[in-house]
Amino acid sequence: MSATHLHGPVVVIGTGLLGASIGLGLEHRGVPVFLEDTSPTNQAVAVDIGAGRPVAELDANPGVQPELVVVAAPPDVTVDVVARALERWPRAVVVDIASVKGAILAGLRERGADLTRYVGTHPMAGREKSGPVAARGELFTSMPWVVCAPPEADHDAVRLAKSLGADLGGNVIEFDAAEHDEAVALVSHLPQVMSSLLASRLQGTDLRLLALAGNGLRDTTRIAASDPGLWVQILGANAPQVVEHLYGVRDDVERLIRTLEAPTAPGARLDMAQLVSEGNAGVARIPGKHGGPPQAFAWMSILVDDRPGQIARLLTEIGEIGVNLEDLRLDHSSGRNVGMVEISVLPSKHDALVAELEERGWRVLQ
Ligand SMILES: NC(=O)C1=CN([C@@H]2O[C@H](COP(=O)(O)OP(=O)(O)OC[C@H]3O[C@@H](n4cnc5c(N)ncnc54)[C@H](O)[C@@H]3O)[C@@H](O)[C@H]2O)C=CC1
Ligand SMILES: O=C(O)C(=O)Cc1ccc(O)cc1
């Protein structure tokens, strides 16, 4: 990885969730950012939260060109906005961050855009919310940041695109556009579709039934709250790759339906076990945090009295014991006078932590 950093100025066009998050992250590192959006409100909000200054202030100084332009507008308008930015700032490198890459590169080629100064990128980080109000400067920390350089791109343009991802704390990975689209169909677009399909089953359901919802439902439906306008564009631009996975899902669902229609038939239980085991095998392949190899963490549950300050005391004591928490979940059902804190740690730390916590009087369930 190149160790160079951005100096700026950087122009961000499209100051919604992603654009304002990029602006915040760069401004935090001292890189001057200028913002532009077709929505005056979104631009003003992004300025107000500290993501940069209006681009008019850069335009007022015609001698200064941006070092880098980041197009963070919706996929449908990205080709047009990138092509115009390449013409408007003839010395700047222009990157986009749209969730699909092949269609955008093809569109720019068709338009005869100067691809020596263009690099496609895609931060694999986001939220189920949109607009600058939801922006977070640390959104990209330790998340993959894909760089898809067209063969025509200058070395310096690629270096700058990588610096953007690295300066925002991302893990930079190089793919070509076709490989990228194939990968995101599986790791991003299919999860969105599955989450939406699942959550749509909840429509019209008696709220008394939904009151039983636990973490399983929440874990599998968070991204069902995503913006339909954005996802129409993403799925439309990557439809052939996504549909290949849906054929596989359809086959598996049909197999499961046949099994559950006759759950006591010979072989049916094996089929059910196989379905869950196949899921076990898939989930074990998801890389750990920071892009490392798959890492199975060891979980434990600690009972805490429902009194103010108990969870803070627990976390302080875990810090004193010197163990790093990998994940933390709270289960705090109303009407009970104890809560449950579930934590995960490296497997090598698990037994010693349980022993230490029990010694200090905590009730630990494994
Ligand atoms: N939402 C997410 O989690 C992620 C989104 N992306 C990509 O980032 C891009 C932006 O997505 P979000 O920030 O989520 O959307 P958003 O809806 O929060 O923001 C998009 C912004 O672009 C502005 N805009 C629309 N047309 C424009 C134009 N012609 N010129 C200038 N500004 C224009 C809108 O007014 C809005 O402020 C999309 O291409 C998306 O595929 C990439 C990774 C994650
Ligand atoms: O909310 C999440 O966890 C996401 O994964 C969001 C997301 C949405 C679109 C992308 O192109 C990349 C990431």
From TrEMBL:
<dbReference type="InterPro" id="IPR003099">
    <property type="entry name" value="Prephen_DH"/>
</dbReference>
<dbReference type="InterPro" id="IPR008927">
    <property type="entry name" value="6-PGluconate_DH-like_C_sf"/>
</dbReference>
<dbReference type="InterPro" id="IPR036291">
    <property type="entry name" value="NAD(P)-bd_dom_sf"/>
</dbReference>
<comment type="similarity">
    <text>Belongs to the prephenate/arogenate dehydrogenase family.</text>
</comment>
<keyword id="KW-0520">NAD</keyword>
<dbReference type="GO" id="GO:0070403">
    <property type="term" value="F:NAD+ binding"/>
</dbReference>
<dbReference type="InterPro" id="IPR050812">
    <property type="entry name" value="Preph/Arog_dehydrog"/>
</dbReference>
<keyword id="KW-0560">Oxidoreductase</keyword>
<keyword id="KW-0028">Amino-acid biosynthesis</keyword>
<dbReference type="Pfam" id="PF02153">
    <property type="entry name" value="PDH_N"/>
</dbReference>
<keyword id="KW-0827">Tyrosine biosynthesis</keyword>
<protein>
    <recommendedName>
        <fullName>Prephenate dehydrogenase</fullName>
        <ecNumber>1.3.1.12</ecNumber>
    </recommendedName>
</protein>
<feature type="domain" description="Prephenate/arogenate dehydrogenase">
    <location>
        <begin position="8"/>
        <end position="294"/>
    </location>
</feature>
<dbReference type="InterPro" id="IPR045865">
    <property type="entry name" value="ACT-like_dom_sf"/>
</dbReference>
<dbReference type="Pfam" id="PF20463">
    <property type="entry name" value="PDH_C"/>
</dbReference>
<keyword id="KW-0057">Aromatic amino acid biosynthesis</keyword>
<comment type="pathway">
    <text>Amino-acid biosynthesis; L-tyrosine biosynthesis; (4-hydroxyphenyl)pyruvate from prephenate (NAD(+) route): step 1/1.</text>
</comment>
<dbReference type="InterPro" id="IPR046826">
    <property type="entry name" value="PDH_N"/>
</dbReference>
<dbReference type="GO" id="GO:0008977">
    <property type="term" value="F:prephenate dehydrogenase (NAD+) activity"/>
</dbReference>
<dbReference type="GO" id="GO:0006571">
    <property type="term" value="P:tyrosine biosynthetic process"/>
</dbReference>
<feature type="domain" description="ACT">
    <location>
        <begin position="299"/>
        <end position="366"/>
    </location>
</feature>
<dbReference type="InterPro" id="IPR002912">
    <property type="entry name" value="ACT_dom"/>
</dbReference>
<dbReference type="InterPro" id="IPR046825">
    <property type="entry name" value="PDH_C"/>
</dbReference>
<dbReference type="GO" id="GO:0004665">
    <property type="term" value="F:prephenate dehydrogenase (NADP+) activity"/>
</dbReference>
